[in-house]
Amino acid sequence: MITAELLEDLKAILPEERIAVDNEQGHPLGNSGKVTVYPNSEEEIANILRYANDNGKKISVVGGGTKRGFGGIIEYADIGLSLANYKGFVEHVVGDMTLTVKAGTPVKELQEYLAPFNQKIAMDVNWPEYATIGGVIAANDSGPKRLGYGSARDAVIGLRTVYPDGTVIRSGGKVVKNVAGYDMNKLFIGSMGTLGVVSEVTLKLRPRTKYESLVLLSFPEGDLQGIRSFAVKLLDSMMEPVALELLNPSLAEKLTGQHRYTLAISFEDIESSVHYQEEFIKKIQPAQTELKILSIKDALVFWDQFYQMAPNGAADTAGPQTEAALKIGVVNLDVINVIRECQLLQDTHHVSALAHGGLGHGLCQVILEGSSDDILSAINLLRSSAEQLGGYAVVKHLPFSLRQKVNVWGEKPAHYFLLEGIKKKIDPNRILNPGRFVGGI
User: Fold this and answer.
1) What are the tens digits of pLDDT across the range 300-330?
2) N or C: which end of the chain has fewer CB within 10 A?
3) Rounded to a whole number, what is the distance in angstroms from the first to the last CA of the chain?
4) Which residues contact 82 (CB under 8 A, 6 or more apart)?
């Protein structure tokens, strides 16, 4: 229940029209607020956090909502802090190729703003029209082009972060060459908003791609050794793909129409360099494989479709089947084993599994759809398989009711005591995103 006292207290911080009470039965993904507030400034964010910290109120932070099903063991916090209104550009230094932006700005808006300057942020994320830069940073998100782009962490130069007590701190700087002291940015990037609310992000930019293409190399069913041998040759060469992603047959069929294990190899450079690398692929192409090259326009269409495949926490999630998404990390070539396992479990667990993984960086993304029991069983199997390979599995999307039955982050890591110690120091009252991170932090 929302108390009249809480509402009156919040009205003293924000105008009434930017306070919304949740009168519905509850969102299936949880991570809601009994009352949601929409600050327009960093000062308002700080005032809300200070009030919550002083009065023992729990806060759930949300940007665009795409990651609403990622972590969290509390259905309702006292206050939902939405950064939907806190967006826009603070500073763009074109010559230095840096951009400072408010945390609630969607990634697609950033890229569209930068396009006329022939600049971009080196990020590829799911649902870029919804995903905010603050949410991407909080989850340290990345896609298939992580091989060439790196993760979200690699694009960040500096942050402004609001601590739970309302203190605003700055970490990093506003120039690319920033080497002073410990890199505090790393403390907040990937911490799922459990240490502070990122209010501003300073990013290093790259020149916009002059030309790109996508090579689709499909293999006969089951020729996993051929995939491994080809990947080793390519990775040992001087070629520089920005993505070397293995698609399982189910995902490949949705994207290409062919039910085969398929490698999606992306090149970005000047046109002559891209064509040179395409020719190299043709020279080392294994027998019995089929090769198709998508030029720049068709490649962009492919990736746009690709980034709409994952579950979207900001969309209506009420459907007849349960959706789940996992991130699995293994040694890069062990990705082949994970993708094969995902394909096989469709028969053994009666689920749909769309899976892809980077043979250069070792991260796999798996989208599952099926009954709740089958989904939970499939998650346990994939986690066990990953751990046997010396890797890990994190559940990135799952309805709230099922997150009570599975450990989203897996077992606590050996360094958990350090994470717990940092949390106690920065957020001793545990008001920020409770239960959203490793070990229930």
Assistant:
1) 999 999 999 999 999 865 678 899 999 999 9
2) N
3) 25
4) 36, 37, 38, 62, 63
Cβ neighbors of 103 (< 8 A, separation 6 or more) are 63, 83, 86, 87, 132, 133, 134, 137, 197, 198, 199, 200, 201
Distance of CA 210 to the CA centre of its chain: 26
Tell me how far CA of residue 86 lies from CA of 16, 45, 132, 188, in angstroms.
17, 9, 10, 19
For the segment 127-151, the average pLDDT, to the nearest whole number, is 96
pTM: 0.94
Find, among 116, 124, 36, 138, the residue nearest to 80 by Cα. 36
Answer for the pair 406, 379: CB distance below 8 angstroms, yes or no: yes
Instruction: Judge whether 264 and 335 are in contact, CB under 8 Å.
Output: no
Instruction: Find out whether 110 and 129 touch, Cβ atoms under 8 Å.
Output: no
Token duo for residue 406: 């599975």
Is the pLDDT reported for residue 4 higher than 90?
no
The predicted-structure confidence for 356-387, as pLDDT tens digits, reads as follows 999 999 999 999 999 999 999 999 999 999 99
Task: Please answer whether residues 120 and 206 qualify as being in contact, where contact means their C-beta atoms are separated by less than 8 angstroms.
Answer: yes
Q: How far is CA 255 from the centre of its chain?
A: 21
| One-letter amino acid for residue 293 of the chain | I
